[in-house]
Specification:
With about 150 residues, this protein is an alpha+beta fold. Helix content is about 35%, strand content about 40%. The protein has four helices and six strands; from the N terminus they run ααββαββββα. The model has no long low-confidence stretch (mean pLDDT about 95).
């Protein structure tokens, strides 16, 4: 069974709405466990959605201090790897209260279709998030946390 573009778009709309509303529990409902996030500077695996939600909640003050008010997306690429695995490349767009784009960030995700038919993220690859957030923070005179 292939994953349709409409299924991916529905998945991404739900994810962006959860991110826009700073609703960690709703966001992590899009994830399977264990989940892995990997980038040039970080590798982490979380074994439960409660751990994922806690980590996401810890990032909210930074995003709010940067002026994030809503999130959008552009699906750049989709590749069905198997009947249940799909890889997607997404550009997230981060907007302020006035709808002006603050920055964007590219991610690759590995999605898996579960037995109930729902898609869940199991691996997220942050391609340029830290560079883009650092540039936005510098432009706004905000010091990013270290460590």
């Amino acid at each position: 069974m292939t994953t349709t573009r409409d299924e991916i778009e529905s998945f991404l709309v739900e994810y962006q709405e959860s991110l826009s509303s700073f609703d960690a529990d709703r966001a992590v409902a899009q994830w399977g466990a264990p989940g892995m996030i990997i980038s040039d500077g970080f590798v982490g695996t979380l074994s439960s959605t409660s751990e994922m939600a806690e980590g996401l909640k810890q990032s909210y003050p930074l995003y709010q201090s940067l002026g994030l008010a809503s999130v959008g997306h552009t699906l750049l690429e989709q590749a069905d790897l198997t009947a249940r695995l799909t890889r997607i490349h997404v550009r997230w767009h981060f907007y302020d209260r006035d709808g002006a784009e603050l920055t964007d960030s590219d991610y690759e995700y590995l999605l898996r279709r579960e037995d109930d038919g729902r898609l869940h993220v199991y691996v997220a690859v942050a391609i340029d998030e830290m560079e883009k957030l650092a540039a936005l923070a510098a432009a706004k005179g905000i010091e990013l946390p270290t460590g």
